[in-house]
Design a protein that fits this description.
- The protein has 306 residues and is α/β, with parallel strands linked by helices.
- Helices cover 32% and strands 25% of the residues.
- Helix 2 packs parallel to helix 5 and helix 3 crosses helix 9.
- The longest helix has 21 residues.
- The structure holds S-adenosylmethionine and zinc ion.
- The site of zinc ion has 8 residues, from loops.
Length: 306
């Protein structure tokens, strides 16, 4: 791919071959002559002629909101409202999650990655420095625009506005799949299965899927907090137990690692450690059995079942 002659912040033409029509899985082809990076254009299904717009570099594949249902539609609006504040809100936890997550993704050189629920690109920015290309999917247009502006114009990242639960791609195409803090916001059991089925089929045999997910940890259990609820902003969440994740994912993936991460020692907040140091301490604590009970997130790493 010639990154020097790219149009600014367009959708990389080379990622079109990873996409399919959301109605009938037909191949998509660009309408007319296309540059290496498409800023405004149309992708057309070779089977049913359905058209998908690329508008300002972002591919639009979102279904009508009625299909999403009220809970997801409410989250979509909330994510757009909250997008500007997101990175600041999560900054203190960033390193306690990212070091382990990047490690679980393994070697990324030459690899093509699909990221579900990429948000404002916290991990997209890390991945793109190493991987060959990234297809980053989210249903918050404002979040995707933030990612777009944070990336160099010629970054090999294809931004897609779509419902990550229902989004389908060409089968067994990606070397890696990532869903960081996305799974806990899927509102129904049926949709959790739908997402896992789609993610498993998007990834190559021998590829890796990594997810970080809210953990119903010891602190929450002692406080008798409910596993399910709505954030004030109107965002649905579910805090999972390790066993629940094991069971749900087992139908689609062979587990390689399931471990609590994002561990903070009791009273650590008073020590005012740097965020990076707190990230490395958390990573060491992942090996301490009792400390693992305090992990705020579950890290899942697995390979799609054949
Ligand atoms: C907690 S944020 C995590 C963002 C990013 N992965 C990170 O770790 O910083 C969850 C993201 O998932 C997106 N999301 C939630 N449900 C979605 C869905 N059904 N389809 C697409 N995006 C969704 C939200 O818009 C939001 O950007
Ligand atoms: Zn079609």
């Amino acid at each position: 791919m010639d990154r020097n002659t790219s149009a600014s912040r367009g959708f990389p033409k080379e990622l079109i071959s990873t996409l399919v029509c959301q109605k009938d899985r037909g191949s998509l082809v660009a309408d007319g002559e296309t540059p290496e990076y498409i800023v405004d254009g149309v992708l057309k299904c070779a089977t049913c002629s359905e058209r998908y717009r690329i508008d300002g570099g972002i591919l639009r594949m979102l279904p009508e909101t009625q299909i999403l249902g009220d809970t997801l539609a409410s989250e979509m609006a909330a994510r757009d409202r909250e997008a500007e504040k997101y990175d600041r809100r999560i900054a203190s936890r960033h390193y306690r999650e990212v070091i382990s997550t990047m490690h679980a993704l393994g070697v990324l050189q030459g690899k093509t990655v699909i990221e579900y629920g990429c948000g404002t690109g916290r991990l997209t920015k890390e991945i793109v420095q190493k991987a060959h290309a990234v297809l980053a999917v989210d249903f918050s247009l404002i979040s995707l625009k933030i990612v777009q502006h944070a990336l160099p114009p010629d970054a090999p990242v294809g931004l897609v506005l779509a419902d990550s639960i229902r989004f389908i791609t060409k089968e067994h195409t990606f070397d890696r799949g990532l869903a960081a803090q996305f799974f806990e916001h899927i509102p129904t059991e049926r949709e959790r299965h739908l997402f896992l089925q789609h993610a498993a089929s998007a990834i190559k045999h021998g590829g890796t899927f990594v997810a970080t997910i809210y953990h119903h940890d010891l602190r929450r259990r002692l406080k008798k907090l409910s596993q399910e609820g709505m954030h004030k902003s109107g965002i649905y969440y579910y805090f999972f137990t390790m066993r629940e994740i094991q069971k749900l994912f087992a139908q689609y993936f062979v587990p390689q690692k399931i471990t609590p991460i994002d561990i903070m020692l009791p009273f650590a907040a008073r020590l005012h450690l740097s965020q990076k140091l707190s990230g490395y301490i958390s990573r060491c604590l992942e090996c301490v059995l009792l400390m693992r009970l305090l992990g705020h997130l579950i890290l899942y790493q697995g390979a799609p079942k054949k």
